Amino acid sequence: MATSTIHPLTAQQLSHAIITAAMKVHSELGPGLLESVYQACLQHELQRAGFQAASQVGLPVVYRGVRLEIGYRMDLVVEGLVIVEIKSVDAISPIHQAQIISYLKLSDKSLGLLINFNVVHLKDGIRRFVNGTEWKT
């Protein structure tokens, strides 16, 4: 797939490309590894496909007009548009969902994917989150 800087993709198309790349990683590695392994492999797969994928992107908190660098890190940010949070857990819990919703709000991004690689079928481990309506464009 061509890079989105050459052929701009909608957020939905980018989301589909990320999920496709995640499925390749999961097919190759299977469940049971550390989150850091899946993150590195997914980043590599996305970059191989021509996408900009930054890992461990810092996320400051602005509180009462003060920017606080307190150590929050987003696992992957793809094309500066989509946050990808990677898990390798028995089940996605409400706190994992709250985490990506908070990251979307703090970063002012509109689309996030929560991907749990510790499942037999990856489709069962993918959750999509939206913030606002800009993800439609």
Quaternary:
single chain
**Tally of helical segments:** 3
Please compute the radius of gyration using only Cα atoms. Answer: 15 Å
Could you please say which CATH topology applies here?
A: Trna Endonuclease, Chain: A, domain 1
pLDDT averaged residue by residue: 91
Share in β-strands: 25-35%
Text of the CATH class: Alpha Beta
Shape: globular
Beta-strand segment tally: 7
Helix content: 25-40%
Largest sheet: 5 strands, mixed
Separation of the first and last Cα atoms: 19 Å
How many domains make up the 3D coordinates? 1
Contiguous low-pLDDT stretches (5 residues minimum) are 1-7
Strand order within the widest beta sheet: 1-4-5-6-7
Task: List SSEs in N-to-C order.
Answer: HHEEEEEHEE
The CATH architecture can be named as 3-Layer(aba) Sandwich
Sheet/helix structural class: alpha+beta
Structural write-up:
There is one protein chain. This protein is an alpha+beta fold. It has one domain (11-136): 3-Layer(aba) Sandwich (Trna Endonuclease, Chain: A, domain 1), CATH 3.40.1350. It has helices at 11-29, 35-48, 94-107; strands at residues 53-58, 61-63, 66-68, 73-78, 82-87, 111-116, 126-130. It has a five-stranded mixed β-sheet, with helices on both faces. The protein has a two-stranded antiparallel ribbon with strand order 2-3. A hairpin with a 2-residue loop joins strand 2 and strand 3 (66-68). Helix 1 crosses helix 2 (35-48). The longest helix is centred in the first third of the chain and has 19 residues, at 11-29. It is globular and about 45 Å long. The two termini are 19 Å apart. The model is unreliable at 1-7 (pLDDT under 50).
